[in-house]
From TrEMBL:
Keywords noted in UniProt: Membrane, Transmembrane, Transmembrane helix
Protein name: CbtA family protein
Organism domain of life: Bacteria
Ranges annotated as spanning the membrane: 7-28, 80-101, 113-132, 152-174, 181-202, 241-258
InterPro entries membership: CbtA_put (IPR012666)
Lineage, top ranks: Bacteria, Bacillati, Actinomycetota, Actinomycetes, Mycobacteriales
Amino acid sequence: MEKKFIGAGLLSGLIAGIVSFVFARFYLEPVVAKAVDYEGERSEAEETLAHAAGGHSHGDGGEVFTRAMQENLGAGVGNVVFALCMGAFFAVAFTVLWSYLGNRYPATDARAVAAVLGAIGFVAVFGVPFFAYPANPPAVGDDDTIGDRTGAFLTITIASVVLAVAAVVLALWLRPRIGGLVSAVVGGAAYLVGVGITIALLPSFHEVPEPVRNDAGQIVFPGFPADVVGDFRVYTIVNQVILWTVLTVVFALILGAMSRSKNSTARAVGATHG
């Protein structure tokens, strides 16, 4: 049964990755293109300013991959691989959780467990890390702090997942004592307190490019467009909502099909021996 769950998770992840890529290709990639164009134009303005001041600039050596390859093959592979990983982790988490709930509470609907797990996964893997460090398009962020930003993001992501697991364990432990609803509220509150403390201890980064100014303080090139940042973040959220929704729904549908197949087999065996 565990292998079937893993297979269901991988299939669900594959479908979710394809669907989320289609959305990203038509909505996210045009915003990324605007950010890339801004970055190129800003570099030209800075080079012109440096040349006028008697300095010199260094080329970036050109693109290793074309934009067409990045927004199609690169983005497609990235979306699918990420979704496959999430599908595998989802299946493992479901297997562990169902081995506990299925034995102790046989009347529990496996599809409801998958739905709750999908909501927890979305919040723990994407929601909280995004709240702490919202996604930014290319050209936003200082190259000198990329290591610190990456480390902080990985820290809050790992902490969020670990705290979510601890919250679920706490809720399941409290369920026989104080009831399912109250134990869920307590577990959720404990999770929020934990991630709140973690976020407060981590550094913050505000690195949206300001306007380029000359020595006289005059603006020679505008700062990064706020609407591009806003659109990128909104579409990123929608993209992740689509990914986790499709992953969860497909996984639940497969569980339903597996359950019906198991029941049909059991009835057939019963009729044979009847």
